[in-house]
Amino acid sequence: MSKIAQKEDYVLAFNQFLEKKQLRKTAERAAMLQRILAFDKHFTIEDIITHTKPAISRATAYNMLTLMLQARLLVKHHFPDTIEYELAGRPRHSHQICTTCGKIKEVRDTQLITTLNTRKYTAFNLSHLAIYLYGECSTCARRRKKLTNKPDYNES
Ligand SMILES: [Zn+2]
Ligand SMILES: [Zn+2]
Questions:
Q1: 3-class secondary structure for 5-21?
Q2: How far is the CA of 95 from the centre of ligand 2 (A)?
Q3: Could you tell me the pTM of the whole model?
Q4: Under CATH, what is the fold of the domain 1-88?
Q5: How far does residue 126's CA lie from ligand 2's centre (Å)?
Q6: Tens digits of per-residue pLDDT, 28-71?
Q7: What is the CATH code of the structural domain delimited by 91-156?
């Protein structure tokens, strides 16, 4: 999905996908789609279950995620601690993943993104991407330093 940015684009693309697959456009699917489009960041299957009204089952939410992935409208992330999703048309960014606490932070590395945006691939059109940077977050670095700098009371 290269030019998907507006909510209406997602709705249109998803409805076209359902038609192509000869699947029904149910009120439930429409409600879940609206809920998903309202997420301005990563979300989990639990987020969809918690926030969709009227209530939906886990199986229904899972089915919806599968359909949206097949329609190429979502990116699925396999992080060390969780599985998260985000809309495929969000601005390109990288993910900093702390290997100590598991915290995930989105970063817009302009230089890297510019490189990727202008990069030409042979017989391939880049639509979306997932970049993971593994390391230590500042909170964990501070905590570790505090631990190592702690006076050793056993010594005196
Ligand atoms: Zn951390
Ligand atoms: Zn992200």
A1: CCHHHHHHHHHHHHHHC
A2: 6
A3: 0.84
A4: Arc Repressor Mutant, subunit A (1.10.10)
A5: 17
A6: 999 999 999 999 899 999 999 999 999 999 999 999 999 999 99
A7: 3.30.1490.190
Closest ligand to 92 CA? 2
Angle between helical axes of 58-70 and 27-38 (0-180°, round to 10): 70
91 CB-contact burial (10 Å; exposed 0-12 / middle 13-18 / buried 19+): exposed
Same CATH fold assignment for domains 1-88 and 91-156: no
SS3 63: helix
Task: Note the pLDDT tens digit of each residue in 79-120.
Answer: 988 999 999 999 999 999 999 999 999 999 999 989 988 888
Ligand approaching nearest to the C-alpha of 80: 1
Q: Which ligand is nearest to the CA of 99?
A: 1
| Domain extent listing, the chain | 1-88, 91-156
